[in-house]
Amino acid sequence: MKNIYKTIGLLGFVLAFASCDDKLDIEPRQSISTSTAISTGENVKNILIGAYSETGQDDSYGGYLQLLADLYGITDQATWGGTFQPPRQVFNKSIFVDNAFVANLWLNAYDAINQANLVLDYADLVEEADRDRVMGEAYFLRALNYFDLNRLYSSPDGSLGVPLSLNGIVDYSQDLQLPRATSAEVYQQVVADLENAINLLPESNDIFADKYSAEALLARVQLQIGNYDEALAAADDVIENSGHELTDSFSEAFNNDSDSSEDVFAFQVTTQDGANVLVTHYADQSFGGRGGDVTVNQAYLDLFDENDERGSFFYASAQNGGTLTSKYTNQFGNISLIRLAEMYLIRAEANVRLSSEVGASPVDDVNMIRERAGADLLEEVSLDDILLERELELMFEGFTIFDYKRTGRMVGELPANSPALSFPIPQREMDVNDLLVQNPGYGS
């Protein structure tokens, strides 16, 4: 999907941490070609490009991860009206263990993780001038994939996470089965990887992950796990020192062919290599979509002030007459993964929770976002105000289920710890890995 991240032809041996049988059944000659092919620094750099490519595939951050994360948390804000059954199951909070989107997301993430692991295993082959950067990017990608795997597939009580593999697979004759780590162990590894990335990456790195990409993701991670001091420090540093700025208008943050000033990290999409899959499901056919699989409900529109630009950033579908978000109207627009606006909202939330004013007061940070959108400015803010602001600013960008679960809010009639709000471990993984334990509500 991402031409700029396209796997170089050398990587015909694309490797995955494979808990699925078709990944395990690899002939010895392929293992031999793998071990001998990773012999130069250029080989390692090409594997790194492959890790970006895998991470940005449609099944993951190319769009389906964000789509599923929103559909999972949405109740009255929007409606799934598409014909695809896997997203419908997620929207209905009634997921089958053979759900193809849930299974492919898992598999794609472990593909990317294994490539990141291989980069780290063979980093000594990279010339010293580039080694830190290459390792830092691999740590970033591994952390990103493990973070969202853990958020989506962890058990409802937060005890069990996902299998944690930290070494690249070259010898496929060995036993590749791993049990699930605890959720805490996975988050601990994610934080460690991001701290390594921050220490190794340069402050700017063209379209690839840089120090502030890693630090912004760390702010998101620390907010997720309730380490508000650390979330605050990371978000504040990104705001104050990264050089990123909010775009002049809300609309300018979206549908861009190149990174905007607000993009702390984005996946690149080109005309040669496919389309933005978020456009596929959110957009009208005139923009390259399916006509609006996700339609916005009046209950969500009513949350906006009359003059709030964000409340009018919608249009009517010519296919079904429904209201569609305007965030995805460029078929080949980049997919923004981390925007600076999120950092302001993290800093505001952490300051409120800590009764502090590091960097700025919470109300000033929220008003920074609201003023850009033309919304009425607030005189003071509560935690509920900030959580609402996140929903107004970040809806349809993959935050909904995560925000509702981490703050303990009901998702419709479901409590945040409902078994229905954890993805099942894909059935094909359960079938080939005797060490895996299924999440409650999905059988043994």
Overview of this protein structure:
- The chain is mainly α and 444 residues long.
- The protein has 2 domains: 1-201 and 413-444, Serine Threonine Protein Phosphatase 5, Tetratricopeptide repeat; 205-407, Serine Threonine Protein Phosphatase 5, Tetratricopeptide repeat (Alpha Horseshoe), CATH 1.25.40.
- It is 45% helix and 5% strand.
- It is built from 17 helices and 6 strands.
- It has helices at residues 21-24, 28-37, 41-55, 64-73, 85-91, 100-121, 128-153, 183-200, 211-224, 228-241, 277-282, 298-301, 340-354, 362-373, 383-394, 400-406, 427-432; strands at residues 78-80, 263-267, 294-296, 314-316, 323-325, 335-339.
- Strands 1-3 form a two-stranded antiparallel ribbon. Strands 2-6 form a two-stranded antiparallel ribbon.
- Strand 4 and strand 5 form a beta hairpin.
- The protein is globular, with a radius of gyration of 21 Å.
- It starts with 20 loop residues before the first helix and ends in a 12-residue tail after the last helix.
